[in-house]
Amino acid sequence: MKKKIRNKEVKEYSPFADPNEFKIGDVLYFKKFRDWQADGQIVEGIYGEVVDVKETKDNYRFITVVFQDYRGENEARIDPGEEPRDFVVGLQKSQD
User: Fold this and answer.
1) Distance (Å, rounded) from C-alpha 51 to C-alpha 82?
2) How far apart are CA 69 and CA 42, in angstroms?
3) pLDDT in tens, 38-91
4) What DSSP string describes 10-38?
5) Order of strands, sheet of 8-12, starting from the edge strand that comes earlier in the sequence
6) Number of DSSP helices (H) and strands (E) in the chain, helices first
7) Kind and range of the H or E element at 55?
8) Is-above-0.70 flag for pTM?
9) Mind listing the pLDDT tens digit for each residue in 19-40?
């Protein structure tokens, strides 16, 4: 994805991305996003910014994303709320 928002390159979120792919300050595009303020409905086209990267003692990596500063950029006209949300990265795809 080569789109830029506010002079920052946009990266597409995937839970299967390399665990080191996303850094604090990265702008992410969520192709599909569960809107908990609309009964869990799946919407498309949400942007957010990584504000934290953490790793559990079991070596799972999470990124914390905030969405409020990118409301005007979103393709889906929803309010994703002001609360930061955690997303896992570095999952392995099953071989099934």
Assistant:
1) 13
2) 21
3) 777 787 788 999 999 999 888 889 999 998 888 778 766 666 778 898 999 988
4) EEE--TTS-TTS--TT-EEEEEEEEEGGG
5) 4-5, 8-12, 27-35, 41-55, 61-66, 85-89
6) 0, 6
7) strand 41-55
8) yes
9) 899 999 999 998 887 776 677 7
